[in-house]
Amino acid sequence: MKALPVEPSNAPVAIGSRIRSARQAQRMTIEQVADSTGLTKGFLSRVERDLTSPSVASLVTLCQVLSISIGDLFTAPETHVTRLDEAPKVSLGGEGINERLLTARSERRLQMIRAVIEPNGRGEQDLYSVDCEVETLHIIAGRFELIFSNERYELEAGDTITFPGREPHTWINPTDQEAVVLWTLVPAASRG
Questions:
Q1: Angle between helical axes of 56-66 and 30-37 (0-180°, round to 10)
Q2: Is the peptide bond before 174 cis (omega within 30 degrees of 0)?
Q3: First to last CA, the chain
Q4: What is the pTM of this model?
Q5: For residues 21 and 33, is the Cβ–Cβ distance under 8 A?
Q6: What are phi and psi of 102, to 5 degrees?
Q7: Residue 53 near residue 10, CB atoms below 8 Å
Q8: What region does 28 belong to: left with phi over 0, alpha with psi -120 to 50, or beta?
Q9: Which residues on neighbouring strands pair with residue 111, listed in sequence order?
Q10: Axis-axis angle for helices 16-25, 41-48 (nearest 10)
Q11: pLDDT at res. 181
Q12: pLDDT per residue as tens digits for the range 98-143
């Protein structure tokens, strides 16, 4: 079987934003990178804006100074799209709630769950906590009450509350209208 020839592309490879991001992550200025690499500030600025391409030798030096691998500049970012109607249903407990996982099941950095809560739907009878560092709750539609041992928060569409994930709590939709909320857990709750 004969291999199909691949035509070379004249399209420039856009790596400038990744180089800029790596420099900023190292908290370095263009001037500091220029001093460390021997490249000029103007040249580095043009590289970061994809107006010029560095030679292989310059790229190797730049990557060493920025503590990144050359391969990282050319690797496509890992992305995952979840369509709401295809999002897997999950159940974290409660009554009158329909929950869908919006992030990839494999995502460990955070987890987003969209919940539609029926009128008078409620969380667990007893306070519970989630195994994560931070929980953020955003009310998309309707009203929602978040209940802690010593406090209650009455929230409505547009409100957002952030609290420690291990803080015991429960919730209720205190109205005769549906509520839609978005839970964000950081990092993703462990699945023991």
A1: 120
A2: no
A3: 50
A4: 0.70
A5: no
A6: -90, -20
A7: no
A8: beta
A9: 185
A10: 120
A11: 97
A12: 999 999 988 999 999 999 999 999 999 999 988 899 999 999 999 9
DSSP 165: T
Residue whose token pair is 């990282």:
72
Task: Tell me the per-residue pLDDT of 44-66, one tens digit each, with 9 for 90 and over.
Answer: 999 999 999 899 999 999 999 99
Amino acid at residue number 117: I
Q: In the predicted model, is pLDDT for residue 10 greater than 80?
A: no
Amino acid identity at 133: E
Measured distance CA(131)–CA(122) in Å, rounded: 20
Q: Is the peptide bond prior to 54 cis by the omega test (within 30 degrees of 0)? A: no
What tens digit of pLDDT does each residue of 58-108 get? Answer: 999 999 999 999 988 888 878 889 999 999 999 888 999 999 999 998 899
Q: Quick check: 103 and 87 in contact, CB under 8 A?
A: no
Are 114 and 99 spatial neighbours (Cβ–Cβ below 8 Å)? yes
The DSSP line for 92-155 is -S-EEEEEEE-S-TT--S-EEEEEEEEEEEE--SS-B--SSSEEEEEEEESEEEEEESS-EEEE
CA-CA-CA-CA torsion sign (118, 124, 127, 130):
negative
Using pLDDT thresholds of 50, 70 and 90, give the confidence band for residue 6: low
Q: Specify the length of the chain in residues.
A: 192
User: Cα–Cα distance between 161 and 136 in angstroms, integer?
Assistant: 6
